[in-house]
Amino acid sequence: MEAIIASAVAVLGTLLGSGITLAFQRSTAERSHEFTRREKLRQERLDAYSAYAGALVNYRRCLVHLWFCIHEQPPPGDADEVRIRAYDLRSNTQEALFRVQMLTDDEALSQSAEAVLTDVTGLYKTDSRSELDERRAQTRDDISHLVRAAKQHL
């Protein structure tokens, strides 16, 4: 009789130990999966935010060049080439913006990213050099502010 009780206790102990081990393994696997998912999202956001900031800087630089081509006697045909390049860069920048908007869960950051693109796009439409200089400084600061805001979401 004692042997049967000892066997039953041993079997119950083994089952209980297996159940506890399974629960810990499952919990560990879920935490690992969640960590991996969060890290992948963080890396995708980092890539998207960086690509967008870089695209904005390139687009902005091209628009400044376009302003000089329009307002300060460019070589023949140079303004047309720069204008075409600006259109291409705008498309690239919009694609990068869409990726940022898809990856961020902060609506304010999404709207801020869109507002910066709008401000940069209007850069070459200024009439005077002083106004251009003001807008250049403002758009540079806007891009820096956007990068700092995006950093908070990584």
Q: Your description of this structure?
A:
With 154 residues, the chain is mainly α. It has one domain (39-151): Four Helix Bundle (Hemerythrin (Met), subunit A) (Up-down Bundle), CATH 1.20.120. It contains 4 helices and no strands. Helix 1 packs parallel to helix 3 (107-121) and helix 2 runs antiparallel to helix 3. The longest helix is centred in the N-terminal third of the chain and has 70 residues, at 2-71. The chain starts with a helix and ends with a helix. The model has no long low-confidence stretch (mean pLDDT 90).
Short overview:
With 154 residues, the chain is mainly α. Helix content is 87%, strand content 0%. The chain has a single domain (39-151), classed as Four Helix Bundle (Hemerythrin (Met), subunit A) (Up-down Bundle).
Based on the model shown, name its key terms.
154 residues; mainly alpha; Four Helix Bundle (Hemerythrin (Met), subunit A); 4 helices
Q: Distance between the terminal alpha carbons, to the nearest Å?
A: 64 Å
The percentage of residues in β strands lies in: under 5%
Under CATH at level 1, the class stands as Mainly Alpha
What's the architecture in CATH terms? Up-down Bundle
How big is the Rg?
A: 29 Å
Number of domains: 1
Q: How many beta-strand runs?
A: 0
Chain-wise SSE layout:
Layout: H1 2-71, H2 78-103, H3 107-121, H4 129-151
Helix pairs in contact: 1-2, 1-3, 1-4, 2-3, 3-4
